[in-house]
Amino acid sequence: MSISCGMRIGLIVGLVCFLFIATMQGQNLRYVDARDLSMVGKACSSKEFYHRLDTVLFKKLPSKVKYLSTHSCGLAIGFVTNSTIVAVKWIVKPDKPSANLSAIAQKGLDLYIKHNGVWEFAGVGIPDLNENSCEGLIVQNMDSQSKECLLYLPLFSEVKSLEIGIEEDSSIFPLQYPFKKKVLIYGSSIVHGAEASRPGTTYVAKLSRRTGIDFINLGFSGNARMENSMADCLASLNADAYVLDCVPNVTAGQIAERTAYLVKTIRKAHPKAPIIVMQSIAMDIGNFDAEKKNDLRIKNEFIRAEVEKLWHAGMQELYFIEGEKLIGYDHEGTGDGIHPNDLGFERMAACLSSQLLDILKYEK
Question: How confident is the model at residue 94, as a pLDDT?
Answer without folding.
Answer: 76
